[in-house]
Amino acid sequence: MKVSVVRHILEANERIAEQNRALFQENRIFVINLMSSPGAGKTSLLERTIDALKEEIRMAVIEGDIQSSRDAERVAEKGVPAVQINTGGACHLDGNMIRDTFGEFDFTELDLLVVENVGNLVCPAEFKVGEDSKVMILSVAEGDDKPSKYPLMFHESKVLLINKIDLLPYVDCSVEKIRRDSLKINPGLIIFEVSCKTGEGLNPWYDWLRREVKVKKGNV
User: Fold this and answer.
1) To pair with 81 at 20 to 30 A between CA atoms, which of 40, 70, 72, 107?
2) Is 90:54 a contact under the CB 8 Å cutoff?
């Protein structure tokens, strides 16, 4: 019974996510589902990305957290539309939660929508929201064993950002091991090594976003 219930929940979410995707496609909006464990640097990455690209890419953010609106406030301070979803305990965002925010946006004025998911390395990987790409962040402070412990997250993601590389001299973490183990799970995974604190390595990430937005708009 439990397996059947879970399957029905996932199937129902899949239908709503496809409806979301159709709306995004109609408006040619590139959509990212941004995932990580708590504290890996999702909001810091967003702040850096907004500063770098907001003059050339029209973007908006949906923030997911169990409680509080601090992350949405941080993003809004950067001058882009931001909506907060408080899940009240749920460990992930789903298609229906995303659909409930649609009245807050003018989709005709957007090129890029980033969904910052709840901090969790398990559930967000299972639930689609209508995104084009799942993007995950792993900080070196979390250790290099995460691909083997949470393989679904790495399997489902298109991009992995290894963040906080400025801390490598102070933590016991092998970036090469993360790369090797991640690519065993997902050979097509795109990997960027970055520091959202110093800005190191972020330009290739910005270039990837630029290309994906152009492709979605049909400009390539």
Assistant:
1) 40
2) no
Helices 42-53 and 202-217 cross at an angle (nearest 10°) of: 70
Q: How far apart are CA 53 and CA 95, in angstroms?
A: 27
CA 209 to CA 157: how far, in whole Å? 15
Q: How many CB atoms lie within 10 A of CB 88?
A: 7
How many residues are given for the chain?
220
SS3 string, 63-90, reads EEECCCCHHHHHHHCCCCCEEEEECCCC
pTM over 0.90: yes
Contacts of 53 (CB under 8 A, 6+ apart): 59, 112, 206, 209, 210
3-state helix vs strand vs coil in the chain, percent to 5? 45, 20, 35
